[in-house]
Amino acid sequence: MSRDIRRVGVVGGGQMGAGIAEVCARAGLDTVVCEVDAVAARDRVAASLDRAVERGKLTRAAARDALDRMVFSGSLEDLADRQLVVEAVVENADAKTEIFTALDKIVEAPDAVLASNTSSLPVELSAPTPWDR
């Protein structure tokens, strides 16, 4: 895959998901965060950006720009046009399977990347990959 990724989605707005989304937005990427409590996710990212400004690691304008590049939603359907979606929810195999099953139906681009931030669960592919061809 040689194309540039410009549209990122993150499923989960907890500590890890919010951090992934913040890094993407600070890098200039159009970022959608999908979280049941979208307001709490936005508040988490805004607080992190504020801390970065207070520590002199980010200008106020850059923090505002990063937050402006983010959309916070409670609906997975808002991830349909994403080129990369990173799952960052609770370490529960059933929850992750349910999310990936939904994303497989929702994300439109056939070459979109669906990734997991899991640290303790095995990741298995059940569909053919480009490497299987």
UniProtKB/TrEMBL annotation:
Pfam families: 3HCDH_N
InterPro entries: 3-OHacyl-CoA_DH_NAD-bd, NAD(P)-bd_dom_sf
Gene3D superfamilies to which the protein is assigned, alphabetical: NAD(P)-binding Rossmann-like Domain
Keywords carried by this UniProt record: Oxidoreductase
BP-aspect Gene Ontology terms: fatty acid beta-oxidation
Enzyme Commission no: 1.1.1.157
GO molecular function list: 3-hydroxybutyryl-CoA dehydrogenase activity; NAD+ binding
Superkingdom of this protein's organism: Bacteria
Presence of keyword Oxidoreductase: yes
Residues covered by the 3-hydroxyacyl-CoA dehydrogenase NAD binding domain: 8-124
PANTHER family xrefs: 3-HYDROXYACYL-COA DEHYDROGENASE FAMILY PROTEIN, 3-HYDROXYBUTYRYL-COA DEHYDROGENASE
Family: Belongs to the 3-hydroxyacyl-CoA dehydrogenase family.
Protein name in the entry: 3-hydroxybutyryl-CoA dehydrogenase
Species whose genome carries this gene: Streptomyces olivochromogenes
